[in-house]
């Protein structure tokens, strides 16, 4: 008997009919002789609607109460799904994150998992029941408060449960057939990737690919959890995410892996430029120490050559839009001590990344990327590279066109348009 953890996103349980369809799939998995644990998200856009409602009540919702509010979405889904499964004659039990033993730190809105103690889940499985767990949430032992894990928290919940229970596979169900070479909503000719390394998936997730969230991929890689990303709308094979690629080379094809695995884009980034920084040792350290104290996540960093006449330089970096104002405020407070001239903030940027393990042994990838963007009249503002990724910053209104151009330039286009079964993309 295999133990399978399944995760269903909001678009997969968006209404009563969808919940019944998911329940049928879960029951089929159980009747095939498997133990089944399910992590479920809130229905459709429930989380966004609750956030909107909170901000209608107050411009700055209290973090503790906001977590109490947002976790209701997953509790609705888990209860309805358990009811649907029971109506099919199969025992099911639903559990909140705290009941499931998801122990987190005390940070509201973006808590980190510190321990998983799935005692009640194991007891339910031993009794022959299907286990349904509310994703996205946990419990802090010190404060005794409910917490949420942040965006993608249901993915992280599923992976953490799979690791704690020793599951054979963690199936992430979504509204597309797997991981694609680009977001099929933006690049219609994107095609499904049969298998991808966790290293490549981490880079794509960090660059904005939303089919899997980076924390879930990191957790899976650290604990050796095999992921299978697939559609809840059909029974097709999805994308396997493992430490190494799953060998599946069709007869007659080239034996080497493709140079580029996929293209990702992100419109949720902003750029801060610290203007007129004294070009002396320690000033960059001072600036990023201030940023670090805010807890902001810095992505790309560029420092210009200092002007000989003034001895000053500019330092630019990107970060999530939601953290921009917080970092600007912190830098303004310490401006007299650091001694820079001014701050510039730009939230109309987009980040594009090309990712592929084949880049390690292939020359000319950067030149091809820059040439195709140039031919399309798309300007590059910042560049960052790793061993298997090249990222560039463009204007926000050119990002989607840039993704399509680059996807075509690297030969990733499929003959047929990708199918998106549901979801709003919100």
Describe the protein's architecture and organization.
This protein is α/β, with parallel strands linked by helices. It has a domain at 3-175: 3-Layer(aba) Sandwich (Carbamate kinase), CATH 3.40.1160. 33% of the residues lie in helices and 25% in strands. It has twelve helices and 20 strands. It has helices at 16-31, 46-57, 63-86, 119-126, 153-165, 198-206, 214-223, 283-294, 324-333, 335-338, 365-375, 399-409, and strands spanning 3-8, 35-40, 92-95, 102-104, 113-116, 130-134, 137-140, 145-148, 169-174, 195-197, 227-231, 239-242, 262-266, 269-278, 301-303, 312-320, 342-346, 349-355, 382-386, 389-395. It has an eight-stranded mixed beta sheet with strand order 3-6-2-1-9-11-12-10, sandwiched between helices. A four-stranded antiparallel beta sheet has the order 13-18-20-19, sandwiched between helices. A four-stranded antiparallel beta sheet has the order 15-16-14-17, with helices on one face. Helix 2 runs antiparallel to helix 3 (63-86) and helix 11 crosses helix 12. The chain is globular and about 80 Å long.
């Amino acid at each position: 008997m295999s133990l399978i953890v399944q995760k269903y996103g909001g678009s997969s349980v968006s209404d009563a009919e969808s919940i019944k369809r998911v329940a049928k799939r879960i029951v089929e998995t159980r009747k095939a002789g498997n133990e089944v644990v399910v992590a479920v998200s809130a229905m459709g856009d429930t989380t966004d609607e609750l956030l909107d409602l909170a901000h209608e009540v107050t411009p700055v919702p209290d973090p503790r109460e906001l977590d109490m509010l947002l976790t209701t979405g997953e509790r609705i889904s888990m209860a309805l799904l358990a009811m649907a499964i029971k109506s099919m004659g199969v025992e099911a039990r639903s559990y909140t994150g705290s009941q499931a033993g998801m122990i987190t730190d005390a940070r509201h809105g973006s808590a980190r998992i510190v321990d998983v103690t799935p005692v009640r889940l194991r007891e339910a499985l031993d009794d022959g029941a299907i286990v349904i767990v509310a994703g996205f949430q946990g419990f802090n032992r010190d404060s005794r408060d409910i917490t949420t894990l942040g965006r993608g928290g249901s993915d992280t919940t599923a992976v953490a449960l799979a690791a704690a229970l020793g599951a054979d596979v963690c199936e992430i169900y979504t509204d597309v057939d797997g991981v694609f070479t680009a977001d099929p909503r933006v690049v219609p000719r994107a095609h499904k990737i049969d298998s991808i390394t966790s290293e490549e998936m981490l880079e794509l997730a960090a660059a904005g690919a939303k089919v899997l969230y980076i924390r879930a991929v990191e957790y899976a890689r650290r604990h050796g959890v095999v992921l299978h990303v697939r559609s809840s709308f059909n029974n097709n094979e999805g994308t396997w995410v493992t430490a190494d690629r799953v060998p599946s080379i069709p007869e007659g094809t080239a034996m080497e892996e493709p140079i580029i695995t996929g293209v990702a884009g992100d419109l949720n980034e902003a750029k801060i430029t610290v203007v007129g920084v004294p070009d002396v040792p320690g000033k960059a350290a001072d600036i990023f120490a201030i940023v670090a104290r805010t807890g902001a996540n810095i992505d790309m960093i560029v420092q210009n050559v200092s002007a000989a006449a003034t001895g000053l330089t500019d330092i630019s970096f990107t970060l999530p839009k939601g953290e921009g104002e917080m970092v600007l405020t912190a830098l303004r407070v310490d401006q007299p001590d650091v001694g820079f001239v001014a701050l510039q903030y730009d939230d109309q940027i987009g980040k594009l990344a090309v990712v592929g393990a084949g880049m390690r042994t292939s020359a000319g990838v950067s030149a091809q990327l820059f040439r195709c963007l140039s031919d399309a009249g798309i300007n590059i503002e910042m560049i960052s590279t790793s061993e298997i990724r090249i990222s560039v910053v463009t204007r926000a209104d050119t990002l989607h066109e840039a993704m399509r151009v680059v996807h075509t330039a690297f030969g990733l286009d499929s003959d047929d348009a990708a199918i998106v079964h549901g979801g709003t993309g919100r």
